Amino acid sequence: MHLTNSTTRLAARNRSLLRDAALALGCAALFGLLAALVTGQWRPLVRFDQEWIGELHTYAREHRIWTASVQTLSDIGGTVTMRTLLGIAAGWLWLIGARVLAGWVAAQALIGWGAQWALKLAFDRSRPSFTDPVSHAGGPAFPSGHAMTSAITCAVLVGLLWYRVHRRGRTAACVVAAATVLTIGWTRVALGVHWPSDVLAGWLAAGIVLGAVTAVIQVWRPGALARDVRRVNWRTRPRVQRVVVSAERSTHTASPLDEDGPDGARTEEAAGGPVDHPDETVR
Fold first, then answer.
1. Whether the predicted pLDDT of 106 surpasses 60
2. Is the pLDDT confidence value at 5 over 60?
3. Measured distance CA(133)–CA(154) in Å, rounded
4. Which of 12, 117, 148, 256 is within CB 3.0–4.6 Å of 279 for a Cys-Cys bond?
5. Could you give the angle at which helices 99-123 and 145-161 cross, rounded to 10 degrees?
């Protein structure tokens, strides 16, 4: 039984690693294609960018209250806000002992920030220019930092919630995350500070960072992310349930096949109770 469980977990870990690597490589390929079209001034893409920017800028200039609302949404979902959320999540995970998971969250924030500016400086694309702009932003345009950071943050937060909620909760989390990412990306185009292709590039760059960082950690510390997920589940379990489980454990005799839980105690599975065993690491 122990060998069967180990084999199953190893297979799940390998599948997860392949998915993360495929995410990073797939997004990298699409990002490379988009970057080539942008730098090559591909006419259909240029026309698409200009038409969207032109129409939205005209509307924003004529509807000041609407524009102010969009600016507020953009500010709330800015890079500082998103990285602060990741910092809080990483700090909390570190305090409860999920150190590898905390490092994963921190690495997503830091590597995402570094990759964003490395790409911006590498391509040095100019932002849309208007004689009567409704908003201002500095630095190169490609890729959009707001789009990239919001995508990384929302994906990480959904990943942290994934094994703590049931199917409806997962669906709700994904819907909220997708709506947030799409809204923030759209505000940057609506305000005339980014081309639509900048926002798309930001989302693809986020996919590269998410997949690459997760895959590297899985190779460096195999199974560590899954163990930290179980540790988080244990530490955040309702106190009453933990007391009941502890009482059930006392009626069983330990065996050499029992596994240790996050705090050195036997897991609920070994005690005959239910236990959450994610079949893959957080992505």
1. yes
2. no
3. 30
4. 12
5. 160
